[in-house]
Amino acid sequence: MTETTPRPRAVLAAVALLAALPLALSACSSAGPGADSTSAAQGVGAKWGECMRSAGFDVPDPADEELASGVVRTPPGADDQAFGDAARTCQHDLGLKGTDDAQRQTWERQYGQVASCIREHGFADFPEQEPGVLNPADYARSEEPAFEKAFSDCLAEFAPDTKQSNPG
Q1: Which of 16, 96, 121, 126 lies at a 20 to 30 A Cα distance from 144?
Q2: In contact, 7 and 143? CB cutoff 8 Å
Q3: Are 74 and 80 in contact (CB under 8 A)?
């Protein structure tokens, strides 16, 4: 996997969407029995991107790995609720299944630790997050280099499996 230094805004504004999007991709696979989940996921990002654009959102096709991990980003200026609703519709239309309770609980724990870590790194005013949500986009200091570093460092320490997108 290639590491990038993403801006915190690249992480989905509503990581709660993560609870709806990480996928059991076998439902949309045309691969035969015995195919692994990687081959089953081929092209699902492009299909999801097409569906979201049809719903009116200007989004690039996420990499299959990003979509499978649930980390896609709300486009700048888009309404989080409308984006989440469209994402769930596309998920359903593509026959994709959501995550289980254990995975949602893992994210809740991890993102709570990330938020606490950010506060401990000099950003005490970083707002409380909803369970399973990590939303730096509306935080006034989110574009400060020191915040970006703290965000990335804390994410790497407490939620190392969370993929980050790099906008543009």
Answers
A1: 16
A2: yes
A3: yes
Q: Which helix (H) or strand (E) holds 151?
A: helix 145-158
Question: Positive or negative, the Cα torsion across 73, 18, 2, 37?
Answer: negative
Instruction: Give the SS3 label for residue 104.
Output: helix
What length is written for the chain?
168
- Looking at residue 97, the DSSP 8-state letter turns out to be B
Between CA 120 and CA 109 the distance in angstroms is: 17
Q: How far apart are CA 80 and CA 13, in angstroms?
A: 7
Distance CA 43, CA 21 (A): 15
Q: Which two tokens stand for residue 78?
A: 């888009």
CA distance 156 to 153: 5
Q: How far apart are CA 36 and CA 139, in angstroms?
A: 40
